[in-house]
Design brief:
alpha/beta, 4 domains, 25 strands
Length: 648
């Protein structure tokens, strides 16, 4: 018999459902399932807390002598433990929808998210873990210039709001100079938690490509070896970013950058390149063979006849009747294989048919596809001049210094993605990755979708005059994220104009990082009565129903592009998300007399949609006149098969 809970369960600001995924507890649960003897308890601030018995863990792996204090191989730096911890700390923020900044909001599957990527990556954990096929990032290189990701491990959302001028405080961007004594440390502390979170999002056959220069490439590779596993290292690609020599340097001119490639598991396999006549000019068809172009392979074996006597036999030219015996070299094929090639028309005796030793025809149509190499020259993957040109053609002027070329990211997608991949770039910059996804979809008729994340970093009007002027001209705030969005708008228009027969997705939904819509209990000790009255409504003032709906999607693990429908039931607006997986009525008042009709209508709509799993129903806690109406509605919904009933 189904157990029926008598009350609607509250979804408070501190409840697990109102936060991003708790990766620490997920890890503990996994360990508990595998090795329950690992778990123990410790007292922290007078409270019992689950902990891992490290001594037992060592015994399970056969290590009875090693100590945590022993020296270990690997990269260590000050703050690494803290950086690891911040990756495990859930976020209580949310992503607020911005249809007015978006393109094709109702139909697009692409996302552009404004916010600190550390918090955004946390918020994406429930909805996108194990769903991303390819990640490409071009993180800020550690050049000693301004550094815009100085994580405050206590309240990173407050950092973000201060940085973008949304709250008072005006915290300055810190400088990460070599004189600070923490030059590499600060950069590693910034990258480490982001890479930890990013790995969770990858599919088992997923892969990450990271552009980096010489300054941190060795450290980055050491970090990636730890997070992804050295066995999952795929390549260190040298990309020829410029093709001309510069005499402005006093030592070596740098003409390449690195692209480090790591897979999540050994399920990944790189996409090979299709062989074409353009890709390999050695193929031709001088005898008009119906099987298409071919290239000739030698019949001669490097081994001498005395070393391979079994491969020595006379061959006869069918055109002249002349017989040839091996002299200095044996043949590559056995007598049986030779006669099979002859009968199959796979031997070429020359243009006049009089060659004494034929060539073996190797057909292009049967050739193995081309494996990629780890040197990408500028003709294959573009260069920084191409990147500048790409952006200037879209925006009409140079507003970014040395953006990555679209051609480079197209090569990344060609080698690492499939036609239906989710592509993530959480250092989106000018938006080259999204532009490349549009172009590749138009080229291969694919359905790849992107998630771009970019900090709305303020543009300095003095140091970045062209960027600031551009934002003024398009009447947008002076931030990098605004340039990203504008590029994506224009890139979609251009790709659609260049490919009029392509009807694919050229839009994107914009979301912005913010504090949760669910109000946390924060009493004023000098006015407890006023605090109680102010907290009757649990939704933050100024937040819309659509804000709350998308927070529910995130916190319940649904895709941010999942369909949302609305229907009037018993005079109330009810939203159905994901075909009935989530149903929400966020009306400000639900009377006792409304309960039965509302519950029956919601149950009927759920039955009509027939979702595969359970349905969660959500209401405003303050909407109910009293506990009676709340209880009645909860009981009727649960009796109708909607077992998860929550209130905000």
């Amino acid at each position: 018999m189904q157990k029926i809970e008598p009350y609607i369960q509250p979804m408070a600001a501190g409840s697990p459902e109102a936060q991003s995924a708790d990766l620490k507890m997920d890890n503990i649960a996994t360990l508990k399932a595998l090795f329950p003897e690992l778990l123990t308890e410790r007292i922290v601030n007078g409270k019992a807390e689950t902990a891992i018995n490290v001594d037992v863990l060592k015994q399970l792996v056969g290590d009875t002598t090693a100590s945590d204090t022993e020296e270990k191989y690997g990269l260590n730096w000050h703050g690494k433990r803290r950086a690891r911890q911040i990756a495990l700390t859930p976020s209580t923020g949310t992503l607020r929808p911005c249809p007015e900044d978006s393109v094709d909001w109702d139909t697009t599957q692409n996302l552009m998210i404004e916010g600190d990527n550390l918090e955004v990556l946390k918020l994406l954990q429930k909805s996108y873990t194990g769903k991303v096929k390819l990640i490409y990032i071009d993180p800020p290189y550690n050049t000693g210039k301004d550094f815009v990701y100085p994580d405050n491990f206590q309240d990173n959302i407050k950092n973000y709001l201060e940085l973008t001028g949304q709250v008072q405080g005006g915290r300055k961007i810190s400088s990460n100079t070599e004189a600070s004594g923490r030059f590499h440390t600060d950069w590693l502390n910034m990258m480490y938690p982001r890479l930890r979170l990013a790995r969770n999002l990858l599919r088992d056959d997923g892969v990450i490509f990271i552009s980096i220069d010489d300054g941190e490439s060795a450290n980055l590779q050491a970090v990636l070896n730890e997070i992804f596993g050295e066995e999952n290292f795929q390549a260190n690609i040298s990309w020829q970013k410029r093709y001309t020599r510069s005499n402005n340097t006093i030592d070596f001119t740098t003409v390449v950058e690195h692209i480090l490639v790591y897979s999540k598991t050994d399920d990944f396999s790189v996409n090979l390149l299709e062989r074409t006549r353009e890709a390999d000019s050695r193929y031709s068809n001088p005898d008009n063979d119906s099987r298409g172009p071919w290239k000739g392979a030698s019949l001669l074996n490097p081994a001498t006849p005395d070393r391979r006597p079994n491969l020595c036999y006379p061959i006869q030219n069918p055109n002249t009747g002349k017989i040839t015996n091996p002299t200095t070299n044996a043949w590559r094929r056995s007598r049986e294989e030779f006669h099979k090639l002859q009968s199959d028309g796979r031997l070429y005796w020359g243009s006049n048919g009089e060659q004494a030793v034929p060539a073996i025809k190797m057909f292009l149509s049967e050739a193995r596809e081309i494996t990629p190499i780890n040197f990408w020259e500028h003709g294959y993957a573009g260069n920084t001049d191409d990147g500048t040109r790409d952006l200037r053609e879209l925006l009409g002027e140079k507003v970014f210094d040395n953006p990555k070329p679209v051609q480079l990211i197209e090569r990344v997608l060609e080698h690492g993605a499939d036609e239906d991949s989710v592509i993530l770039d959480f250092f989106a910059g000018s938006g080259t990755t999204g532009n490349a996804v549009f172009c590749r979809n138009a080229a291969d008729q694919g359905h790849k979708r992107f998630i771009l994340v970019q900090l709305p970093e303020p543009i300095d009007s003095d140091l970045q005059r062209s960027s600031a002027d551009f934002c003024d001209r398009i009447k947008r705030p002076k931030t990098i994220a605004e340039i990203t969005k504008e590029r994506m708008r224009r890139a979609g228009e251009k790709v659609r104009a260049d490919n009029p027969l392509f009807a694919g997705d050229m839009g994107f939904r914009v979301f912005k990082l913010d504090t949760s819509n669910i109000r946390a209990w924060s009493p004023n000790r000098d006015d407890l009565e006023g605090s109680l009255l102010a907290n009757i409504e649990h939704v933050q003032p100024g937040r819309s129903d659509i804000d709350v709906l998308y927070e529910l999607l995130l916190k319940l693990g649904l895709d941010l592009c999942v369909p949302i429908e609305a229907r009037q039931i018993a005079g109330k607006t009810v939203h159905s998300i994901g075909g009935g997986v989530l149903m929400a009525c966020l009306e400000s008042r639900i009377a006792v007399t409304d309960a039965e009709a509302l519950a029956l209508g919601m149950a009927a709509w759920r039955k009509e949609q027939a979702p595969a799993g359970d349905t969660t129903a959500v209401f405003r806690d303050s909407a109910f006149d009293d506990d009676v109406s709340k209880t009645n509605l909860s009981l009727m919904l649960q009796q109708s098969g909607i077992s998860q009933v929550r209130s905000l």
